[in-house]
Amino acid sequence: MRGTTKAIEHAPHRTQAGRTQAGRKQPAGEAKRSATSDHYTYRVSWSHEDQEFVASCAEFPSLSCLAGSQIEAIEGLRALVVDVVADMGSSGEIPPEALAERRFSGEFVTRVPGELHRLLAIEAAEAGVSLNRLVSCKLAIPLRAPAPARRTVRARPRTAKP
Question: What digits encode the pLDDT tens for the residues 31-40?
Fold first, then answer.
């Protein structure tokens, strides 16, 4: 993740009343931008290449923040997103809508090769379900296999031999 942007400084912590910890009132627009920024989809993961945590935002795929801890990474990125949203607002741009606030119809069209369509229709008929139900079930399976469950082995107490 070379070229990843590090956040310049952390924004002061905001309370629900729209005030900073120091007690100063935020401008109304800033409070709204901050609230909207809080609704975005953030993720923090470890970057083996950079040997730091990297925070990313689904709504702003070009932004990220590297830091030594997960908390620092997410706080740095959130501050960066607030700044970007403010810049967009001042230049008349509309920031992206948070995925969490979008309404999804539950319908989307996808194209598949005709042979795959046939195989799926056969599989659905053999299972006694609709093609839609079969495809929905297949889509619900995670793309990545979950990590195997760890077994915990407890040491047994040693008993003294007579």
Answer: 455 557 889 9
